[in-house]
Amino acid sequence: MQQIIIKLKDDSKLHFLLELLRQMDFIELQVKQAAKQEHADGYNFFKSAGLFSGRQIDADQIRKQAWRITK
């Protein structure tokens, strides 16, 4: 049995493609969801510990900057 891997560029076309392939009686269709690659780049979150050490900043200041609140 031959296998073909198809990578979709546009996820909105998935339904159409699946319906088209289901109409062909010589194809056995097995759909596998792609696993999310959260740590694909090898980034270690825990190495960021102390990123703001030595800075006098608190959550209120971060919120004010994020929401552009001026008082």
Describe the structure.
This protein is an all-alpha fold. The protein is built from 2 helices and no strands. The protein has helices spanning 14-22, 59-67. The longest helix has 9 residues, at 14-22. It starts with 13 loop residues before the first helix and ends with a helix. The mean pLDDT is 82.
Q: What keyword list fits this structure?
A:
71 residues, mainly alpha, 0% strand, elongated
Topology:
Elements: H1 14-22, H2 59-67
Separation of the first and last Cα atoms: 69 Å
Structural class of the helix and strand makeup? mainly alpha
Mean pLDDT: 82
The total of helices stands at 2
Q: How many beta-strand elements?
A: 0
Low-confidence stretches: none
Binned, the helix content reads: 25-40%
Rg, rounded, reads 24 Å
Outline: elongated
Per DSSP, what share of the residues sits in E-state strands of 2 or more residues?
under 5%
Compressed to H and E, one letter per element, the order equals: HH
Q: Characterize the largest beta sheet: strand count, sense, and whether it forms a barrel.
A: none
